[in-house]
């Protein structure tokens, strides 16, 4: 049986939207039936129901919070999916944009995971953080992350602990930034 997977996201400046697109492409290429990328802005959380797997993305905003545009969808999950644990039996993972200049680095991913768990879903692997904007390295890493997720949804791969969440060093690996390049940037006072 082909797994049916939804990729849903919110995005303000396009980073999380690109991650969602890359995930859809990678999983479709691998033969999965993938719905999306679906922008959840203004949507009802019931759209998450009825899939073997759900990949949900949102950027971190404010001080480690959701962007105001995503809050109504999060509240819809709380109101409509949590009471009956309507995502029981669904395997899920989270992703989103972030920036190390902020104290709560990519915290929205943990908020997404907590909410998905409350809805009854099972988190299959560590959430993917993409800092500010994709590059060639992070595009390839994202495709691999989505393929790993697919393998965990189908049971071909064992589940990965999703905490601790990705650190800035983990995200450097995703973005293809070596420790030497990171210290060069830090010493030069460059932004990420
Ligand atoms: C006002 C503002 C607040 C932000 N707050 C955080 C934050 O608390 N933590 C974090 O990791 N990134 C934060 N960011 C960075 C965004 O998450 C980052 O730019 C991300 O790539 C945006 O994703 P998007 O393009 O999908 O909207 C903030 C950005 C802005 C403009």
Average residue pLDDT: 97
Poorly predicted regions: none
How many beta strands in the DSSP annotation? 8
Structural class determined from secondary elements: alpha/beta
Question: What is the CATH-assigned architecture?
Answer: 3-Layer(aba) Sandwich
CATH homologous superfamily placement: Flavodoxin domain
Describe the main β-sheet briefly: 6 strands, parallel
Strand percentage lies at 15-25%
> What gross morphology would you assign?
globular
Task: Please estimate the helix content.
Answer: 25-40%
Bound molecules: flavin mononucleotide
**N-C termini distance:** 43 Å
CATH class: Alpha Beta
Summarize the helix and strand pattern as letters. Answer: EHEEEEHEHEEHHH
Whole-number total of structural domains: 1
Query: Treating each run of at least 4 consecutive H or I residues as one helix, how many helices?
Result: 6
CATH topology: Rossmann fold
Report the C-alpha radius of gyration, rounded: 16 Å
């Amino acid at each position: 049986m082909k797994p049916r997977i939804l990729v849903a996201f919110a995005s303000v400046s396009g980073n999380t939207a690109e991650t969602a697109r890359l995930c859809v492409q990678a999983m479709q290429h691998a033969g999965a039936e993938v719905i999306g990328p679906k922008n959840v802005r203004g949507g009802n959380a019931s759209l998450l129901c009825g899939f073997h797997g759900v990949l949900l993305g949102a950027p971190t905003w404010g001080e480690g919070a959701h962007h105001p545009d995503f809050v109504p969808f999060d509240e819809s999950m709380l109101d409509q999916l949590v009471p009956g644990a309507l995502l029981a039996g669904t395997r899920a993972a989270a992703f989103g944009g972030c920036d190390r200049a902020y104290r709560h680095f990519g915290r929205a991913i943990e908020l997404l995971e907590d909410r998905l768990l409350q809805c009854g879903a099972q988190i299959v692997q560590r959430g993917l953080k993409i800092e500010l904007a994709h590059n060639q390295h992070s595009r390839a890493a994202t495709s691999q992350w989505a393929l790993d997720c697919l393998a965990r949804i189908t049971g071909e791969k064992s589940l990965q602990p999703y905490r601790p969440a990705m650190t800035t060093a983990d995200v450097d690996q995703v973005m293809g930034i070596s420790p030497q390049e990171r210290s060069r940037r830090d010493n030069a006072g460059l932004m990420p």
